[in-house]
């Protein structure tokens, strides 16, 4: 529910949509404060999209509602009955924005769980893992299973599965999120995709000694995963071992297993070292004209390809006789694929048209070199007028194109990740109010200084 002094603005749109927005997230002219994609969490739910700035404090999200009738199943439980009534009024024809004052209540369990689920999806895409910045990567299997647990916990946000089964074809497409995009109701898929992490998670739960809060957190996630798998009709040896383990704890009356001590990091250890790809090492030669750092725009590559550090892209321009060559090195993410990925560097000289340099992974870097196409009459000056060279890295077909400079926002996201890892390193009671570290963050915080 909205807290004391909170105002919720409910605004009808000209196309039948309704926006619900806390006053704190609105600008002076009543529009929702915008920011780069990587500063917002987005959750597709029944009849709406929930948007929340990850760099702000705790609070309710903005809801862009495209089906007010279906959204009523969760609106009252997230924003309160008065906001739900205001949305109904706008959908029924009210033309003016409505303002609902806070009721003074604490956020509901569903609101907290939804905030946590949204942040987890954000982290799976935008977490700024960087070896050079000392920000450990989140174990995808552990994060995926906790997202499955949270999705199951947030079922009120999504259509009932029995109701969905009665809809097919174009009607079903129209009922996804209004645009044909899948809802974030994917507990079964997340469990199936990350089954390999289930046994290590069980071993972590049974290990001892460990903080009681961590054991309770692990048990909560495992029980929700078990229930979600049962509801979805999933089966298999991993899930049967999970059920047997949970049933055994119920029979023994223990909620904090006490097995042999174990370092949880070893349960999810990645393979050591870096495999070699077919890329050739960059060879020195020619006269260096210029060198510098490029732009690491996180939006232009999928997660897990490039180290998120601001200075992970570097380049050197050389003169080889009449030719001009650019050499690019990009620090690889620790989970980057070894081959089969057409990653490229985009190079612009003095604002000219882009040159694309294919990159191949070798050890812990992506490398590539290419001769630059130079329009007739233009050259890379080497003395009185150094060239202005801009270098970025992207994945063709995924890249949305260059955007405005987002360095300040990227720095803020890095600071957020460091704060969360610091908090994760401190043991505190687990009460699932939406602010606790994810299990994957607890693992990342335990990474030794030798690793990061």
Folded structure, characterized:
Residues 161-181 and 271-279 have low confidence and may be disordered. The protein is of the alpha+beta class and 452 residues long. Helix content is 33%, strand content 18%. The protein has a six-stranded antiparallel β-sheet with strand order 3-4-5-2-1-6. It has a five-stranded antiparallel β-sheet with strand order 7-8-9-13-12, with no helix packed on it. A three-stranded antiparallel β-sheet has the order 11-10-14, with no helix packed on it. Among the domains are: 157-268 and 409-445, no CATH class; 287-394. Helix 3 runs antiparallel to helix 4 (140-153) and helix 4 crosses helix 9.
What is the gist of this entry?
The chain has 452 residues and is an alpha+beta fold. The chain contains 13 helices and 14 strands. Among the domains are: 157-268 and 409-445, no CATH class; 287-394.
Overall morphology: globular
- Give me the secondary-structure category: alpha+beta
Radius of gyration: 25 Å
Which strand order spans the largest sheet, edge to edge or round the barrel? 3-4-5-2-1-6
* Average predicted confidence as pLDDT: 83
Quantity of strands, as a count: 14
Q: Regions with pLDDT < 50 over 5+ consecutive residues?
A: 161-181, 271-279
Strand content is 15-25%
* Continuous helix count: 13
Can you give the helix content as a percent range?
A: 25-40%
The biggest sheet amounts to: 6 strands, antiparallel
